[in-house]
Amino acid sequence: MDFELTNDQQELRDAVRAVLATACPPSMVRQVYESKADDGASRAAPLWRQMVQLDWPALTIPEPFGGLGLGYVELAVVVEELGRAVAPTPFVSTATQFVPMVRQAGTSEQQDTFLRPVAEAGSTGTLALAEDDGRWEAASVATTARPVGDSWVLDGKKSFVFDGATADEVAVVARQEGTSGDEGLGVFVVAQASLTSRPADVIDPSQPLAEVLLDNVAVPADRMLVAPGDPRAVETINRAIQEATAAIAIGMTGTCRAIFEITLQYAKDREQYGRPIGSFQALKHRLVDMYLAVERATSLAYFAALTIAEDDERRGLAVAMAKAAAGDCQRLVVQDGLQLHGGVGFTWEHDLHFYLKRAKSANALFGSALMQRAAIVSRLGLVLDEPAGSEAP
Amino acid sequence: MRLSFDRSVEGFRQTFLAWLADNRPSPEEMAADPALSSGHAPPWARRWTRTMFDAGWLVPGWPPERGGRNASPLEQLVYLEEMARADVPRSTNPQGLGIIAPSILDYGSEEQIGSYAMPILRGERTGCLGMSEPGAGSDLAALSTRAVLDGDQFVINGQKVWTSGANHADFCFLFCRTDPSAAKHKGISVVLVDIDTPGVSVRPLPELVAPEYPELNEVFFTDVVVPAANLVGTLNDGWAMANGSLAHERGMVWVSSVMALDASMRHMLDAAPGWLSKLRSGERAVAAAMVADLYVDTQAVRCLGYRGFGKLMRGGSAPEQALMKLFSSETRQRLGLVAAEVEGAASVTVSPQGARGPFLAVDEASTWMEQYFRSFGLTISAGSSEIQRNIIAEKVLGLPRS
Ligand SMILES: Cc1cc2nc3c(=O)[nH]c(=O)nc-3n(C[C@H](O)[C@H](O)[C@H](O)COP(=O)(O)OP(=O)(O)OC[C@H]3O[C@@H](n4cnc5c(N)ncnc54)[C@H](O)[C@@H]3O)c2cc1C
Predict the structure, then answer these.
(1) Ligand 1 pocket residue status of B101, Cβ below 6 Å
(2) Which CATH class is domain A7-123?
(3) Which residues of chain A have a CB within 8 Å of the CB of B288?
(4) I want to staple B399 with a disulfide (CB 3.0 to 4.6 A). Which of A339, B4, B93, B393 is the partner?
(5) What mean pLDDT is predicted for residues A163-172?
(6) B171 near B127, Cβ under 8 Å?
(7) What digits encode the pLDDT tens for the residues A293-344?
(8) DSSP per-residue string spanning A121-155
(9) ipTM, 2 decimals?
(10) How far is A222 from A368, CA to CA, in rounded Å?
(11) Cα dihedral A228, A233, A234, A239 sign
(12) CATH, range A128-230
C-alpha cells in the first residue's frame, strides 16, 4: 500500500510540468480564449504536436498496439498537470474518453485499427455519449442504431462532445430502436467525415465542445465495438465512463490547485492597511480551508485512479467520490479565489478567469457534484424507493 | 502508487490477528469494569497492556525492550488499524502511552525512564499532562505555575486546569515556569510530580455530558516539594516537549482518528435506513445527501492520511499531515451533528445513566447528540481548530504573522 507517487511517476509529473511551463503559459491560453473557435484549435495545435512527439497520447495504449502500456496513475499524473495549466488540448478527449472506450470494448483488430494511429500518428478521438439532457450515462442514451444488412445506421444527436468538431474518430453510444434503460446498447466508431458537427459556444473555450449530428449515418460492421443487445454492453460502457469521469475529476483538482496557489501568492503580495492581506486572520483561515479542500479532492482523485489501475471493486464509488469532492473543491476555491483577488480578479485582463471557468465547466460536465452525491447515496444503499434499471455508472 | 499491501505486510497482519484473538480481553470483561477516566487503568487494562508489552505488541515500532518488535512504518499502520477494528484500547491512559512515556524516553534520565516511562508501558502506572491553566489555554506559553529550585528540590505553586485523568493518575507531567525573567517560551521546564505528594489537590470538573464520569480536573499545587532529579530534560528548555504536533506525527495519532471516524460512519450507515424510512421522500433526499457528504469526508480523511504517510515513509516532509487533526476532528463533529439532525425528534432523548460510558468509552454507548457535544473535546483540545488554521496558514502556507 503506497499513496505516494513512485520515483518514475514523479519524474513524469516533473517532465509534464516543465513542458507545459514553456509550451502552455497563460499567454497561450489567452490566445485560444481570444480567437474564434476554428482559429483557437489551430493555436492549440503546436502544443498537441509536441505532446504527440513526447508520446503522451500513447501512455495507456497497450504495447501491442503501439502504446507504452502504462497504467491509470500515470494517466492521472498527466491529466492533473493539464488541468493545472488549463491546457487547450485534445488529450482529455482522446486519452481519457476515446482510448478507454476502444480498449474496453474493441477486439484486438479494432484496437489496432483505432489505437495505433493515436499512439503513433497523433490521431485524435472522443466519446459521444451525452445528449440534450446532459447526462453521461448509458441508460439515458436515445440515439438509435438500426441494422441494415451487415452494417448499422445511426440516428440521433449528441451534445457536449469534447472536441467533437475536430476529433478524427468519434465513439458513439447508441441503442437498438425500441429498447430503453440498460437494454439494447451498443458502441460504434464513426469518422469525423461521416457526421455533422457543430461547435458549441462555451464559457471555457480552452476545452471546446460540440454537437454531433448523426443523420442516417451508415457504419460498417468492423466499426461496431459492441453490438446492440450484447449483454456486456452496460458494464463495458460504464467502465469507460468511470475512466473518463475520474479524469475530469483529476484535471479539475489540478485546476483548483492552480487557483489556490495563485490566490495564496496574491495574498502574500497584495498589501492593504500597510501589510499583506494574507496576514489578516479572516483570510488566512479561508486560505487554509481552500488548501484542505484541494488536498481532500486530490486524495480522493488518486484513490479513484488507484481503484481503476488495480480494478478494485470500489471503483464505481471511488470515482463518484472523486468527482463529488472535486466539485465541492471548485465551489470553494472559485468563490474564495475570485473574492480574495478583489477587483483585479474580476477583469478579463487578469488570467484568473481561465482557471475559474475551466473548474466550473469541469464540475458541470460528466455529472456535477450534485449528481455524484446522488450516485453515492444509491451506492451506499440509502435510496429506499429507487426505480429499477437506473444503475449509476 | 499502490492500493494493495504486499505479502510480507499481509503476513504481519495475520500474525498479529492470530495473537490478538488468543490474548485480547473480551468485550464483556472490558464493559464490566470500564476505565473511569484517561488516568484510570482497571485490572484487565493493566494486565492487557503488560501482555502486549511482553509480547512486543504494545508499540511495535520500538525495540523489544520497550515493548516492540522493530516493526516497519507500514506494519505499524496495519497494526494500528487492526487494533482499532478489534475495538480494544492499547492502554486506557492514552496520553501516558502516546505522549508522556515517549517524551521521558527522549528527554528523561535513566532513573525517570525506570520509574515513570517503563511503568506506563508495563501497565503499572498512569500519567496525566499538566499544561493548560486558567490564564494559559491556546496561549500555553503564558503559563504561570511556578517551580522554584531550592537546593536539590523544587517548590511548586500554582494551578492547572482541564487536566485529563488527574483524578485517577499516579503522576503528573507538569509544565511550570522556572525562569520568570526569561521570554515566555524560554523559562518553562517539565517536572514529574506524583499526585500523592503533599500539597497536590485534585478537583474533578464534570463535563456537559455524563457528569457522573468526570474526565477533566483542576489541579492545585500548594508548596509542593519534589526532588530536583524530577526535572525532565534541561532546565528552562521544556517548551520543546510542549510541541504536541510532533507527538501527533510521530505517534501516528491520525490512524486512530481515521479509524474512529470510520467506525462512527459505519454506525451511522447502519442506522441511516431506519431514520430515512421515517422521512418523506423530499426530506429523505436532503438527508441522504448529508449522509453521503460525510461518507466522502471520512474516505477523504483516510486517503489524505495515507498520502502524507507515503511521503513520510520516503523520508520526505508531508505538509498535508498538518491538516489531519483539523480535518478529522471537524468531520467527526459534523458526523454527530448530521446524525442527530437526521434522527429527528428521537435525538433529544439522553442515553440511560450507566449505559453511557466515561469519556474514553466507545461512542456507541452514547446518543448521537451526546457524541456531537463530546466531539468538541476534539476540536478544542490539543490546539483548537482555530489554532490549527493559524499554524497551517503560517507554517505550511507561509502566510505572514498577523
Ligand atoms: C476534552 C479536553 C481534554 C483536555 N485535556 C487536557 C490535558 O490533559 N491537559 C491539559 O493541559 N489541557 C487539556 N485540555 C485543555 C486544552 O488544551 C485547552 O482547552 C485548549 O488549549 C484551549 O484553551 P482554552 O480552553 O483556554 O481556550 P482559549 O484558548 O481561551 O480559546 C477560546 C476560543 O478562542 C479561540 N482562540 C484563542 N486564541 C486564538 C487565536 N490566536 N486565533 C484565533 N482564535 C483563537 C480558540 O480557538 C477558542 O475557540 C483539554 C481540553 C479538553 C476540551
Answers:
(1) no
(2) mainly alpha
(3) 377, 382-383
(4) B393
(5) 97
(6) yes
(7) 999 999 999 999 999 999 999 999 999 999 999 999 999 999 999 999 999 9
(8) H---EEEE---TT---SGGG---EEEEETTEEEEE
(9) 0.89
(10) 35
(11) negative
(12) 2.40.110.10
